[in-house]
Amino acid sequence: MASSDNAPQRIAIQGERGSNSHMAALEMLGAIEVVPCVLSAEVIEAVLTGRVDAALLPIENSLHGSVAEHYDLLLEQPVRIDRESLLRIRHNLIAAPGVPLAGIRHILSHPVALSQCRKFLAGFTQAKAMPFYDTAGSVKHLMAEGLRDTAGIAPQLAATEYGAAVLLTGIEDHAENYTRFHLLRRADAPRPPDLPQPDKLSLAFSVEHRPGTLVAALEQLRDAGADLTRIESRPVPGKPWEYVFYVDFRFAGKAIADNAVRSLAPHCRMIKELGRYAAAV
What is the pTM of this model? Predict the structure, then answer.
């Protein structure tokens, strides 16, 4: 997909070049410049300070579940969701060129990637799996250090990016492995005119401490015509046993979305709209 004149040109990602986030950015936006960041908070800071045009962060994986830290950042920081995408996750065993499979004694990757390749790792007894900070970072590391007994588990793009070789493809436990990503901009940034028409809304809310308030809030969304597709709860820091609820819902028309958000007010202490965007599926 070629980027348009209105598409962001510099995108912050968490992780190294060659990561799944890098792949998702290319699939969504085409020819862009990625700005790798070590921490997710650094990704958001890059957006807020204007160092980048936008950011791409994973929000949930179909096997591993939600990325709790990113839900917290969406609530705390003045950013909004403009787009979403789904990326099929494929894990590959990658080593330096010329290294034979029989020579691998160590395997590095992000803990989530290791957990998604348990069956392969259990059968590959010649090597010890060790957690690393990033999937693509493991390949970058083994190439930089000239390691000849070490492989990384990472996307194909990491091998291309760092001049490594793919020893085995598709070593993940489950083929139906997808990660959902959000494209984020500053909350006060103009909405690009070429974005697809929104039909999905994400918001966060906390309810009053009265019996039945959560049920009442969800009933209001239903009665407003919102098609609830996801609900997630996160604890409120410093307030034991209090929670913020995150919901995604589909809607048919702006009036329905507006009415759904307004309908929550009588039952909620806090409401923050996180973004309106076109659903990926």
Answer: 0.90
